[in-house]
Amino acid sequence: MTQIYNFSAGPAMMPKAVLEQAQAELLNWQNQGTSVMEVSHRGKYFSELAAQSDKDFRELYHIPDNYKVLFLQGGARGQFAAIPMNLIGKKGKALYLNSGHWSATAAKEARNFCEIDEINITETDANGLISVVRTDFSDIAEQYDYVHYCTNETISGVEIKEIPNVGNAVLVADMSSNILSGEIDISQFGLIYAGAQKNLGPAGITIVIVREDLIGHARQATPSIWNYETQANADSMINTPPTFAWYLCALVFKHLLKEGGVKAVEARNLKKAELLYQYLDSSTFYHNYIAKPNRSVMNVTFTTNNDELNAKFVAEATQAGLQALKGHKVLGGMRASIYNAMPIEGVEALIAFMDKFAKENN
User: Fold this and answer.
1) Predicted model pTM
2) Is 174 in the active site?
3) What is the pLDDT, as a whole number, of residue 304?
4) Binding site residue list for pyridoxal 5'-phosphate
């Protein structure tokens, strides 16, 4: 059987060792003769798993003690609504930094709950090259209850690597597609949120890291499922959580710690991305339209500038065991998502195929 490499943008591939452990424990977890999916979320064993996962995640990401970690449902889209419901206060409005599809979608949802201002922080030059042109908002940020941005736009492959300067304002970050991919200073953020299905685990669970002083100010009409104070007081269990997804996240955290933590993960990710971008830069057949300082480490977009060739590329790549390389419908082209779980051998296999395809179709 051909070696399969899954370049899906999400739900994405997970570490093989984690899936093998889950497979081995599926029918007999903790020697209970039952699956983790079949035990009470309030029982001793799952409560211990939840507490340990919180501890491991804090260790991985160096999360300060004055932050709560919530394991929630509803994906990042749920947080698009939860954030304004919880964080809009006396100032009555928020600032949204638009760098692409997902930051724009978050802003659109927030308008249902509060007044917002929106600033486009990218620019496309005459050659179609997209770059981030502004990250300093210290002159205006403090008139807002919070400033929201997306650290990595999964569709276009734009990553904002410099943390925006918002002075003393509250900075909120959607890190769904690059959480745990590299080290960050959590203390610079008021709130970080991420859907699990890229680097943390399977779809179905969402992690929120929120500074404690921001909890307890939700508007009265906020549903309890979205109220950070209610969830924090209930250890993220005001209802039955997605226990299997939580369990898999817990295994991923253990795996990453065993592999050397986020620092080691970041080194591997940078090496993978550098290898692929170096090939793209050397090619006249493929094109990437993101300025070098803003190229995503997680989502590498490219195109032949020919829709028929792009479709042929995706079809033949799939036959060669390189799955899910079709670009998002919003953008087209191709996209290689090389999250934490993607081994460097997968990137090498992709480059070898790209080179072969270019020679055969140039």
Assistant:
1) 0.97
2) yes
3) 98
4) 76-77, 102, 154, 174, 197, 239-240
